């Protein structure tokens, strides 16, 4: 059924509701299938495959396959790679892709070995995909990737009849919804998928309501200008919670005992590069800048127009934080309510 | 029994270096300083700790391996300076893709039969992170990636690993041999100082010609070119909170 | 006029005395020999000390004991004990000589009679009193302040009591002898010159001869046994400094202040050893120095790390090394933990304070080297070292951004202007750190106002290596230093000026050992010179009412003895200069030296906060600094206190003033 021009988007372990990133990966499937002139299918793996498939169905896939197996109940890379491989037995695709996640990062390479196909990790875009000679299996697919901690872009070419990729979900949008695609449950033989030498023990959710500093996409940092735990620090905390951000601090704030050590961003603290970095009352000492200068967007609110933080800020607001931050909080709340 | 640990390492540009692009889209490697890939360094450190903790049940041996040219010598020395016992370099100046490197390593694993392969979760330069899982698959070994803690149990028969996953932490148990990859929080590597490097020069270093690895297949993933990120717009001063919100919305950040 | 030697001392007591003396001397020699054996295990590194040098040092530290007088009370106390002891000892020797000459040659008398006897006796009285006075002062001092009894061990007090008992029984024995001598006091009127003994004799005169003789003999025995005990215990307690301190002063390796001892790359390659892992890795000279410690705790009391609750005491380190050397215990780890060694700011206060020329700082660096060699350097300090090695600056910033500070100033590189009068060595902080970039700019303004033609190295300037060296990474230091020396040799600067005392110190004191001899001045010195030459107008009357307190940088004031120049600059700016409690070479560190700038400070109080408090006492408007590290630390401290006091470099204080003058001139 599937052709040399078809694309498969793998979603697994699928959750319900489906992760936004997994839906975004369908966007790559659609774009790629338009380039190849084929269609894209979705393969939804895991115990929640059926519910997830219902959410995937309206996004334009030709067929949404679901696959569950007792060995997929808890996630292991070995079992998921084997499951996907078993599904692909007798099916041909030009590109197999999945949204980058801690899971796909580790089972797609295993799948690539099983299928003897080259792979590109965490691609930002599909530049081109061609199949020059179907019979000989000659083809190329080129992707754009970020390398060197996001400081450079590279163009990667995968050659052969089949390419495998994980894609950065934030760079893609889910295809528009329409009529639901057919959902087809795939049955596997009873053979074991689990690796006999691996045992899943337990999983624990990230413990805090606030994300970890080093992993957060948004960080709100309180500097010395916040004047203390009974003054500006609660404002920073409120803004962080509103934005689902991690809370950071400068060395001065830690030294003053306003926040514990683990909040410190900087050369002697944590080195981070979130998408959005909001510095409140931070002057921008070099040792602090060393810890956050690679953040994608930096916002600085400080009443001292000379503060060095403005040198690295994308958006600088010279204002008294005790006025500006409450205003910001109020207006963001308002926006949320409207949305 | 003694525990044998194999740590594949990669030579990567120093994390402080400003990477430039030559006119033809290749990396400008002139004046570039290199180091052991920081994630691999975590793996070396963890292997050293495992080796130290294995003293009571027969100790261990730590072998570092790299695939690359003579230029990798300095990084091999750094790993030896940290405390690895010996090193092996699969000699090639060709740029290999992940599958080819994994294939070389699989040959090395067959030759060395380690109980555990420990390496970084990805390389700082290309950020592919494919080799460890590919190697595990080629060997049909279990794997645990992005480890934040590794505990060797039963005198080296099993490993209990806490892995950093998107949703939190997963704990898995592996029967050795297995592949484990190191994440940032696993440990804090020791410093490979120059005196250590001098001492390391006396440790054994084998060079294995690439041909000895047999057929590793053709390279099917290659970097065509590099380019700079689109320039970051110059920072601007905003006059009000409203303007700030507007700018953030433009960048889809709110 | 003479006295009877060993009056009232029966033959058995005399024999006992000499027997005990032989025993005491044997115990003494054994103790000294055991230390000598330890020293012999030390490294020989071929260092030599010229005899003239050693002699001068001996005069200064062992005879004049100038360092002790840094504390007047201690100076006086030790002066009394030391000179009292020396003169009493000489007196005892004269008595012994008299006894043996007369005995061996059957003479009636030799030299100890007549006026010689009278003057020696009188001198002994004076110095005996001085001895007792010194002891009493020492005891009072110990009681007054726990800092003066750092180890608080009973044995330390016991030693003083032993000395006091020696002094007092000595006088008592003398008094009893005068009172009981044949013919009584009337017949021995010349003994009046022994005025203390005479006084005591007057008190007991009239007691029966039997009583006097009995008391005399008993006290004489007590005095004699205590003296022998004293001799015997010298090498086994801090009293060993009597021998070892002068020895150390004579043999300690001569070094430029501010320069650390180098490491031979060849030796490391050959032996595989780097730094000090066990006491035997110290040089024998260093091992001698650790035995010279008097446990006076001056180093500890001056140490900024110790003062702020860090685990470091330089004295403790010295004593620990000495005891490990003796009992073979492991040096690193439990005895001297890494945190102890990493706490050091390398401010050098310990070395400057030490009255017996111990180089605690050198020892700490030697042990840090071992930690680094073993890879035992973690966290942010490891990151800084890696960055220094890879990017030539501690923040890992790109070398091509090194000149960003000068944007718009049009500062030429030395290639563009090879005839420049001075080469401005900007330093990493002055190049990359936003606050210190302003200092660099202010300095350029000031120098240009004085018509100085300056140039910079631009992207070819690298970290001098100071932080790497002081963190114990000698190899990164030597790579950087060698590269810089090569660059400077090619650039052939007439003169180098830098606003960083660390760069200044390293170029001035450490590069010569690697063959780099360049004339380098600190910006305070150059500006002071320009003021002296009239190139920068000195303001007649104070034009500003700003109260300025100057915080001396350790690497300028203490390591390089320059504390006038920055003050000259501040005075010329018209500021009202205030002095903090600890200033100049006695200054208190900001906390950033020795790589501490890049380390977490999570034990105890922050050093900069402690210093800030001290500076705040004089209620300044401005805290003036002349070092980029001090700038960062003081600015941080000001911020933590939410203080309105501004922190400015001396060049900024002056530049601001010059600007004001130009404006005022314009208004006129």
Note the topology.
The complex is a heterotrimer of chains A (339), B (254) and C (668).
Chain A (H helix, E strand, L loop, with lengths): L6 E5 L8 H17 L3 E6 L3 H8 L7 E4 L9 H12 L6 E5 L4 H12 L3 E15 L4 E10 L4 E8 L3 E5 L15 E4 L11 E8 L12 E5 L10 H11 L2 E4 L1 H5 L20 E5 L5 H7 L4 E6 L6 H4 L2 E4 L2 H18 L1
Helix pairs in contact in A: 3-4, 5-9
Chain B lengths: L2 E6 L2 E3 L6 E2 L5 E2 L5 E3 L1 H16 L6 E9 L4 H10 L3 E6 L6 H15 L3 E5 L10 H9 L3 E11 L4 E8 L2 E8 L2 E5 L11 H7 L4 E5 L11 E8 L7 E3 L2 H10 L4
Parallel strand pairs in B: 1-6, 1-8, 6-7, 7-13, 8-12, 9-12
Antiparallel strand pairs in B: 2-5, 3-4, 9-10, 10-11
Helix pairs in contact in B: 2-5, 3-4
Chain C lengths: L10 H30 L10 H13 L8 H34 L8 H31 L9 H27 L3 H4 L7 H10 L4 H25 L7 H11 L13 H7 L12 H8 L6 H5 L1 H4 L6 H14 L10 H5 L6 H5 L6 H14 L5 H13 L30 E4 L1 H6 L1 H16 L4 E3 L9 H5 L3 H18 L4 E3 L2 H10 L9 E3 H10 L14 E4 L3 H7 L3 H9 L3 E3 L28 H10 L5 E4 L2 H13 L5 E4 H18 L1
Parallel strand pairs in C: 1-2, 1-3, 3-4, 5-6, 5-7, 7-8
Helix pairs in contact in C: 1-8, 1-11, 2-9, 3-4, 4-5, 5-7, 5-8, 9-11, 14-17, 20-29, 23-25, 24-26, 26-29, 27-28
Would you kindly provide a written description of the structure presented here, covering whatever features stand out?
With 339 residues, chain A is an alpha/beta fold. Chain A has helices spanning 20-36, 49-56, 77-88, 104-115, 233-243, 251-255, 286-292, 309-312, 321-338; strands at 7-11, 40-45, 64-67, 95-99, 119-133, 138-147, 152-159, 163-167, 183-186, 198-205, 218-222, 246-249, 276-280, 297-302, 315-318. Chain A has nine helices and 15 strands. The longest helix of chain A is centred in the last third of the chain and has 18 residues, at 321-338. Chain A is elongated, with a radius of gyration of 24 Å. Chain B contains six helices and 15 strands. The radius of gyration of chain B is 21 Å and the shape is globular. The mean pLDDT of chain B is 93. Chain C is mostly helical. Chain C has helices at 11-40, 51-63, 72-105, 114-144, 154-180, 184-187, 195-204, 209-233, 241-251, 265-271, 284-291, 298-302, 304-307, 314-327, 338-342, 349-353, 360-373, 379-391, 427-432, 434-449, 466-470, 474-491, 501-510, 523-532, 554-560, 564-572, 607-616, 628-640, 650-667; strands at 422-425, 454-456, 496-498, 520-522, 547-550, 576-578, 622-625, 646-649. Chains A and B meet through helix 3, helix 4, strand 5, strand 6 and strand 7 of A and helix 3, helix 4, strand 9, strand 10 and strand 11 of B. Strand 15 (315-318) of chain A pairs parallel with strand 15 (236-238) of chain B.
């Amino acid at each position: 059924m599937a052709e040399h021009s078809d694309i498969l988007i793998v979603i697994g372990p699928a959750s319900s509701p489906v992760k936004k990133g997994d839906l975004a990966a369908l966007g790559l499937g659609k774009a790629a299938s338009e380039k190849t002139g084929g269609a894209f299918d979705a393969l939804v793996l895991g115990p929640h495959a059926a519910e997830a498939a219902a959410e995937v169905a309206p996004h334009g896939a030709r067929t949404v396959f679901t696959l569950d197996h007792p060995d997929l109940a808890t996630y292991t890379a070995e079992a998921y790679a084997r499951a996907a491989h078993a599904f692909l037995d007798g099916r041909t695709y030009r590109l197999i892709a999945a949204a980058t996640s801690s899971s796909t990062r580790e089972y797609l390479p295993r799948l690539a070995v099983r299928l003897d196909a080259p792979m590109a990790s965490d691609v930002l875009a599909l530049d081109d995909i061609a199949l020059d000679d179907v019979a000989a299996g000659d083809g190329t697919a080129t992707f754009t990737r970020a390398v060197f901690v996001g400081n450079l872009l590279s163009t990667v070419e995968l050659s052969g009849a089949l390419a495998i990729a994980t894609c950065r979900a934030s760079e893609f949008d889910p295809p528009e919804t329409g009529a639901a695609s057919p959902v087809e449950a795939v049955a596997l033989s009873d053979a074991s998928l689990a690796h006999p030498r691996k045992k899943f023990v337990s999983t624990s959710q990230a413990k805090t309501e606030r994300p970890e500093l080093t992993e957060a996409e948004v960080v709100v940092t309180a500097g010395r200008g916040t004047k203390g735990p009974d003054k500006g620090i609660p404002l920073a905390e409120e803004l962080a919670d509103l934005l689902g951000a991690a809370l950071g601090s400068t060395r001065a704030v830690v030294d003053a005992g306003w926040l514990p050590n683990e909040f410190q961003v900087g050369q002697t603290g944590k080195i981070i590069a979130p998408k959005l970095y909001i510095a409140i009352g931070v002057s921008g000492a070099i040792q602090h800048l060393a810890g956050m200068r690679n953040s994608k967007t930096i916002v600085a609110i400080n009443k001292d127009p000379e503060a060095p933080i403005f040198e690295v800020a994308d958006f600088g607001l010279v204002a008294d934080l005790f006025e500006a931050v409450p205003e910001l909080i109020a207006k963001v709340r308002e926006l949320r309510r409207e949305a | 029994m003694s525990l044998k640990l194999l740590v594949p390492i990669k030579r990567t540009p120093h994390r402080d270096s400003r990477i430039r692009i030559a006119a033809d889209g290749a990396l400008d490697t002139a004046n570039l300083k290199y180091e052991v890939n920081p994630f691999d360094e975590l793996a070396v450190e963890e292997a050293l700790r495992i080796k130290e903790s294995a003293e009571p049940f027969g100790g261990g041996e730590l072998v570092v391996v790299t695939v690359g040219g003579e230029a990798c010598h300095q990084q091999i020395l750094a790993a030896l300076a940290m405390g690895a016992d010996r090193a092996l370099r699969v000699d090639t100046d060709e740029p290999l893709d992940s599958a080819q490197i994994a294939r070389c390593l699989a040959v090395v694993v067959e030759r060395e039969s380690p109980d555990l392969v420990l390496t970084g979760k990805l390389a700082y330069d290309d950020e592919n992170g494919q080799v460890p899982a590919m190697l595990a698959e080629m060997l049909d070994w279990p794997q645990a990636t992005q480890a934040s803690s590794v505990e060797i149990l039963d005198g080296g028969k099993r490993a209990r690993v806490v892995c950093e996953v998107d949703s939190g932490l997963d704990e898995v148990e592996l029967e050795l041999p297995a592949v484990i990859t190191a994440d940032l929080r696993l440990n804090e590597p020791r410093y490979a100082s120059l005196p250590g490097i001098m001492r390391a020069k006396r440790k054994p270093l084998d060079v294995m010609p690439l041909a000895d690895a047999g057929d590793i297949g053709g390279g099917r993933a290659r970097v065509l070119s590099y380019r700079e990120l689109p320039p970051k717009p110059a920072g601007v001063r905003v006059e009000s909170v409203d303007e700030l919100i507007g700018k953030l919305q433009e960048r889809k950040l709110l | 006029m003479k006295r009877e030697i060993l009056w009232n001392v029966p033959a058995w007591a005399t024999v006992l005395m000499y027997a005990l003396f032989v025993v005491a001397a044997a115990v003494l020699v054994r103790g000294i020999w055991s230390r000598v054996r330890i020293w012999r295990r030390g490294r020989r590194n071929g260092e030599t000390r010229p005899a003239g040098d050693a002699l001068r040092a001996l005069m200064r530290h062992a005879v004049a004991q100038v360092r002790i007088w840094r504390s007047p009370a201690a100076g006086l106390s030790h002066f009394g004990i030391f000179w009292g002891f020396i003169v009493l000892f000489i007196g005892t020797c004269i008595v012994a000589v008299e006894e043996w000459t007369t005995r061996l040659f059957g003479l009636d008398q030799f030299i100890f009679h007549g006026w010689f006897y009278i003057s020696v006796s009188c001198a002994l009285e004076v110095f005996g009193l001085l001895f007792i006075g010194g002891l009493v002062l020492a005891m009072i001092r110990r009681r007054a302040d726990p800092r003066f009894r750092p180890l608080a061990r009973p044995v330390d007090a016991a030693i003083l009591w032993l000395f006091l008992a020696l002094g007092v029984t000595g006088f008592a024995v003398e008094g009893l002898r005068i009172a009981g001598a044949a013919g009584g006091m009337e017949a021995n009127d010349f003994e009046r010159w022994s005025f203390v003994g005479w006084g005591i004799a007057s008190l007991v005169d009239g007691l029966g001869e039997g009583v006097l003789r009995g008391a005399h003999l008993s006290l004489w025995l007590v005095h004699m046994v205590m003296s022998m005990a004293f001799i015997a215990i010298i090498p086994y307690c801090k009293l060993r400094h009597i021998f070892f301190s002068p020895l150390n002063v004579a043999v300690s390796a001569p070094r430029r202040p501010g320069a650390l001892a180098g490491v031979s790359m060849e030796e490391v390659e050959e032996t595989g050893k780097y730094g000090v892992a066990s006491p035997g890795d110290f040089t024998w000279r260093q091992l001698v120095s650790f035995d010279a410690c008097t446990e006076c705790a001056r180093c500890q009391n001056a140490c900024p790390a110790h003062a702020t609750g860090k685990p470091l005491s330089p004295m403790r380190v010295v004593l620990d090394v000495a005891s490990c050397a003796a009992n073979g215990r492991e040096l690193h780890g439990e005895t001297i933990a890494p945190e102890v060694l990493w706490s050091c700011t390398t401010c050098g206060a310990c070395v400057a304070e030490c009255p017996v020329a111990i180089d605690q700082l050198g020892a700490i660096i030697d042990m840090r080297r071992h930690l680094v060699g073993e890879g035992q350097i973690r966290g942010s300090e490891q990151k800084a070292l890696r960055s220094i090695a890879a990017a030539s600056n501690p923040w890992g910033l790109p070398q091509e951004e090194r000149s960003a500070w000068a944007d718009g100033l049009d500062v030429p590189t030395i290639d563009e202007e090879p005839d420049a009068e001075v080469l401005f060595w900007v330093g990493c902080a002055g190049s990359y750190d936003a606050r210190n970039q302003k200092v660099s700019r202010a300095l350029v303004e000031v120098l240009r106002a004085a018509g100085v033609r300056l140039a910079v190295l631009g992207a070819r300037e690298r970290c001098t290596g100071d932080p790497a060296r002081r963190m114990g990474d000698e190899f990164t230091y030597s790579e950087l230093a060698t590269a810089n020396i090569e660059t400077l040799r090619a650039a052939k600067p007439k003169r180098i000026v830098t606003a960083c005392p660390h760069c200044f110190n390293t170029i001035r004191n450490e590069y010569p050992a690697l063959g780099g001899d360049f004339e380098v001045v600190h910006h305070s010195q150059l500006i002071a010179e320009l003021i002296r030459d009239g190139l920068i107008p000195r303001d007649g009357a104070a034009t500003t009412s700003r109260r300025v307190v100057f915080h001396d940088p350790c690497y300028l004031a203490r390591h390089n003895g320059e504390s006038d120049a920055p003050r000259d600059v501040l005075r010329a700016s018209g500021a009202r200069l205030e002095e903090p409690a600890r200033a100049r070479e006695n200054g208190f560190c900001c906390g950033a030296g020795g790589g501490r700038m890049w380390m977490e400070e999570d034990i105890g109080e922050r050093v900069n906060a402690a210093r800030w408090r001290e500076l705040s006492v004089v209620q300044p408007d401005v805290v003036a600094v002349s070092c980029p590290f001090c700038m960062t630390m003081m600015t941080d401290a000001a911020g933590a206190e939410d203080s309105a006091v501004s922190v400015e470099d001396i060049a900024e204080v002056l530049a601001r003033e010059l600007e004001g003058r130009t404006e005022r001139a314009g208004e006129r």
